[in-house]
Write a structure and sequence with these properties.
The complex is a heterodimer of chains A (362) and B (88).
Chain A (H helix, E strand, L loop, with lengths): L3 H11 L5 E5 L23 H13 L4 E5 L9 H10 L3 E6 L6 H11 L3 E5 L5 H8 L4 H14 L4 E6 L8 H11 L2 E5 L19 H9 L1 H7 L22 E4 L4 E3 L9 E2 L6 H7 L1 H17 L12 H8 L7 H20 L15
Parallel strand pairs in A: 1-2, 1-7, 2-3, 3-4, 4-5, 5-6
Antiparallel strand pairs in A: 7-8, 8-9
Chain B lengths: L5 E3 L5 E5 L2 E6 L4 E4 L2 H9 L1 E5 H11 L4 H17 L5
Antiparallel strand pairs in B: 1-5, 2-3, 3-4
Helix pairs in contact in B: 2-3
The chains are: A alpha/beta (362), B alpha+beta (88).
Chain lengths: 362, 88
C-alpha cells in the first residue's frame, strides 16, 4: 500500500519535478582510492559565495534533498558555512564522506550545523588491512569506525557504502556484521563503474563470478544485504528506469550541471544561469536523457534477465558509448540475481516474493 | 490550547511545497510528513508572525468550511505538530 509520500514522489517523478540534487563541493580528497571515478580537470573550483548562490538556485528549483559530496566535502574550510546556508535555505541535507576527519567535536558540529537526515560513509573492507589497501591511507579504517560511533552518539543516521571488488569481496560478511555492531546500515554495490573520463581500469577489479553467485544466493549473505531474495523490477508501464535529469541533478565543483552524478552530459553551468527553472524545462540534454530512461525501461523487457538489471545509463554511455547498451557488469549481476530468484521460488513453492519498484534517484 | 498562541516552524524541519502539499523532513526523528492542502496552508503560515486565531481567519477566507470544523481541525493539527516538536 502506498503512502502519501510515495504518491507525491511518484507524481513528481512522472512530471519531472526534481526533488534531489547532489553537489560535489570539491574534487580534493584526503584518500587515494584506486577505483575513484572523479576526474579533476584542474579548473578553479567554486568559491564560498558561488556555492551559496548555487544553493539558492537549487532552492528556487524546489529541491528538497541536497547531498553534499566530493571528493571529500569536509576538507573544504568553508564546509560548515555552506552547510549552514543549506539549512537556512530549507534543504534536507545528506553528506557523503569518507569519515576520515570526523572526530567527536566534528560529529557534534555536524549535528549542530548541518543536522543531516543521514550521512553516507565509504567502507572498503572489514579489516584495516583491506580498507587501507584501497584508500592508501594508514589508520583510515579505524577513523571510519570511530566516525560512525561519534555520529551515532549524536543520533545521526549512518549508511555505509561499499563498492565490492575482488579486493574486499571475502570481507562482505564481516562488513555486514561491523555495520550492525555500529548501528549503521550498509549498501553493497557489486557493479563497479569506469572513471568519469572513461578509464575502465576500475572495472577490472570487479568481484568474481563465484562470489556474485554466493552473494546473491547464499543465506549467509542475505543478512548482509538485508533482503531475503533479489526481487525483479516491477513494470509500471512507460515509467523511466531512473531519475536521471528527471527527479535529480548533479553539480560538480566547477558549477557544471549534469542529469545525475553518473551521467556526465553537461546541461549547463549553474554560475552562468540566472535561474535553473528554464534550463530544467528546456535543456536538450535533460529532455533527451529523460526520454532515454523511458526507452531503456522498455528495451530491458526484451533483454535476458532485464527485470533484474540495476541498469545505469551513465555507466552504459561511459563504458559502451551508448546510453542503452547493456554492459557486462550489470548483465552478470542480473544473471546471478535471476538464478537466486529462481532458486528461492523453488524452495518456497507457491510463495510470491513480489517485485520492487525502487529506482536510482541520485 | 489558546488560539492566541503564536507558533513558529521548528528550524530542524526542512520542507518544500509540491502542488500545495508541504513535504516536511525532520532529521531528528528520521521522519517525513506530507500534509494535505489545508494542513500545508496552515504550516506555511506558522512563521512566528501570526496567532492561531489569525491563521484560522485566513483558512476561513480560503476554504469553504464552517468555523467550527476549521477550528477543530486547526486545534487537532497544531496539537499534533506540537507533540512532534515540529513547531514551538
Amino acid at each position: 500500500m502506498s503512502t502519501p509520500l510515495d504518491d507525491l514522489r511518484n507524481r513528481n517523478f512522472s512530471r519531472a519535478m526534481p526533488m534531489n540534487a547532489l553537489f560535489e563541493l570539491t574534487f580534493v580528497c584526503n584518500h587515494a582510492c584506486s577505483f575513484c571515478y572523479n576526474c579533476p580537470t584542474g579548473q578553479k573550483e567554486m568559491n564560498t559565495q558561488e556555492v551559496i548562490d548555487s544553493l539558492r538556485k537549487l532552492a528556487d528549483l524546489n529541491i528538497l534533498y541536497l547531498t553534499l559530496s566530493g571528493g571529500e566535502p569536509l576538507v573544504r574550510k568553508d564546509f560548515f558555512e555552506i552547510a549552514a546556508a543549506a539549512r537556512q535555505l530549507g534543504f534536507a541535507v545528506r553528506i557523503y564522506t569518507n569519515g576520515y576527519l570526523i572526530d567527536e567535536p566534528m560529529a557534534r558540529r555536524i549535528k549542530a550545523v548541518a543536522n543531516p537526515t543521514e550521512m553516507e560513509i565509504s567502507l572498503h573492507g572489514g579489516t584495516a588491512a583491506t580498507h587501507e589497501r584501497l584508500t592508501c591511507v594508514p589508520g583510515s579504517f579505524q577513523k571510519v569506525v570511530n566516525a560512525v560511533r561519534f555520529l551515532r552518539q549524536e543520533g545521526i543516521k549512518v549508511n555505509l557504502k561499499c563498492p565490492v571488488t575482488r579486493n574486499n569481496q571475502e570481507e562482505v560478511l564481516e562488513m555486514g556484521r561491523l555495520a550492525a555492531d555500529l548501528g549503521a546500515s550498509i549498501i553493497f554495490d557489486t557493479v563497479i563503474t569506469p572513471r568519469d573520463d572513461g578509464d575502465r581500469e576500475p572495472v577490472s577489479q570487479m568481484s568474481s563470478n563465484d562470489f556474485l553467485e554466493r552473494f546473491w544466493k547464499d543465506d549467509a549473505y542475505r543478512a548482509a544485504r538485508r533482503e531475503d531474495v533479489p526481487r525483479p523490477r516491477v513494470d509500471h508501464g512507460d515509467e523511466a528506469i531512473c531519475g536521471t535529469g528527471r527527479s535529480s541533478l548533479a553539480i560538480d565543483p566547477y558549477g557544471n550541471i549534469y542529469p545525475c552524478v553518473q551521467l556526465r552530459r553537461k546541461a549547463g553551468n549553474i554560475r552562468e544561469l540566472a535561474s535553473l527553472r528554464d534550463m530544467w524545462k528546456s535543456s536538450p540534454v535533460l529532455i533527451e536523457v529523460r526520454q532515454a530512461a523511458v526507452d531503456v525501461a522498455e528495451k530491458l523487457k526484451a533483454v535476458k534477465n532485464g527485470d533484474q538489471c540495476g541498469f545505469c545509463m551513465g555507466v552504459a554511455e561511459l563504458q559502451m558509448g551508448d546510453l542503452m547498451a547493456v554492459y557486462p557488469q550489470v548483465a552478470v549481476n542480473a544473471e546471478y540475481r535471476a538464478k537466486a530468484y529462481e532458486a528461492w521460488k523453488e524452495e518456497h513453492e507457491g510463495e510470491d516474493p513480489g517485485g520492487v519498484s525502487t529506482r536510482c534517484e541520485m | 490550547m489558546t488560539l492566541d498562541l503564536v507558533l513558529k516552524r521548528s528550524p530542524d524541519a526542512a520542507y518544500r511545497v509540491y502542488d500545495g502539499q508541504a513535504t516536511i523532513v525532520l532529521p531528528s526523528h528520521a521522519s517525513v510528513h506530507v500534509l494535505n492542502p489545508i494542513g500545508s496552508f496552515i504550516w506555511e503560515r506558522l512563521d512566528g508572525s501570526a496567532s492561531l486565531s489569525q491563521i484560522l481567519e485566513r483558512v476561513l477566507d480560503e476554504y469553504d468550511i464552517t468555523r467550527e470544523a476549521a477550528e477543530a481541525d486547526l486545534r487537532q493539527f497544531v496539537g499534533s505538530l506540537l507533540n512532534q516538536g515540529m513547531v514551538s
